[in-house]
Amino acid sequence: GDVENEEDDDSAVDAGSSMEDLTQLGEAAEGDSASAATAFNISKLKKRGAKGKKQQEGDQLKSAKEPTGGKEPVGKKKGKTSSRQWYHGPEGGKLDFSESARGNSEGAAAPPKREDMGKSGVDDEDDFEYDDDDDEGEEAVKSKAGGGSWFSSVLRNVVGKESLERSDVQPVLDQLKVRLMAKNVAEVIVEKLCESIATSLEGQKMSSFTRISTVVRSAMEDALTRILTPQRSTNILREIDMKREKGSPYVIVFIGVNGVGKSTNLSKVCYWLLQHEKKVLIAACDTFRSGAVEQLRTHCTRLDVPLFERGYEKDPAAVASEAILQAKRDGTDVVLVDTAGRMQDNEPLMRALSKLINTNNPDLTLFVGEALVGNDAVDQLTKFNERLADLSSKPGSRMIDGIVLTKFDTIDDKVGAALSMVYTSGAPIMFVGMGQTYTDLRKLNVKQIVHTLLK
After folding, report:
1. What are phi and psi of 406, to 5 degrees?
2. Whole-angstrom Cα distance, residue 220 to residue 275?
3. Which CA distances in Å does 416 have to 223, 250, 355, 366, 453?
4. What is the pTM of this model?
5. Any bridge partners for residue 338, and if so which?
6. Do the beta carbons of residue 162 and residue 203 sit within 8 Å?
7. Could you report the per-residue pLDDT of 104-129, keeping only the tens digit for each?
8. How does pLDDT run across 319-338, given as a tens digit for each residue?
9. Residues 454/179, Cβ–Cβ less than 8 Å
């Protein structure tokens, strides 16, 4: 019995010691975790302190570099930013002259008066002088061996030759083909021209000591002059007077693709008519493009002419009809109709244009095209004529009567588009745009164009 009691005491002691050990281990673990947390917080605080110190040093360095001068450093201030200044003229002026037309002209710079703008270039007589220092000058002609001008490889004297053969003129025509295509004349048109000249010269009798190049060049000049010379009357002023005697206004419609300058050149034509004391009304029939009416209003304000408009999303044919009736009641001489720009493959807009022309039957339909685009203008002109003919509801469909060639001052000697457009459509070039002011409008100088093409 004594042995059993001793064993029970030993086990109790072991259990107590085990409990004490577990308690100590728990306290140690709690102490370790607390010390670890304390260590983590200290490290975090040290990092924050170092970061704040660096930021303070940077601010001090920045303030030291800034000039003081008794002024506070300028910082970002929240507020309304100032608008960009597009006008750099006299103080108090504005770029938008259309406000005066709406009765809000306070502070706006007055546009120049119409009588101070100068004379329109349409009435200028361009006395073109032929340049004697040309490629084919008598003194400049040299043999092929010695080099020289572009005709030099095919020049020769014909002595006692009864008639020309195709083989005689073909080398000269080949050189002319290269020249004309380099001046933006369409290749198809050049081929037809050269073939026509070769046929007309074949079998022609030659006088002694006559250059073949001279004969071919003369024939080409005659052909180009015939093409560019209008086959219909281009005296618009006389036609206006004849129409006015009948008690009706003369109606001119401007059509074309987007961005070629229809509204601008319409205003140039208006300025020219005003100088001939014609009473003009401008009809805003571009009810599709945003800002089209405001653009015309600006021109009308500067030119001091009335504007007939019905806003946007209206039927252009109906607007044009109302404008013509209004002009007839007011005794107006000319109605200039502005239309929306459209591509030749835009079916809805082409139908609307065909309706406008067939409904109002204008006296003159002018196609406005860019000289810059070259032979693309020929395609546009052809497609416009085709669409107007296809969409016409009347047997005798109205076609394009004339051409206004814009940006002609930017193409240097690349004048071939003028020849291509006239040759393709048969419509004459009525006006040529030569700049951005109202006076920069000219009539086509056929003699100068022909010389430029052959130079």
Report:
1. -95, 165
2. 38
3. 14, 32, 32, 20, 7
4. 0.69
5. 254, 284
6. no
7. 445 445 666 666 677 787 877 665 44
8. 999 999 999 999 999 999 99
9. yes
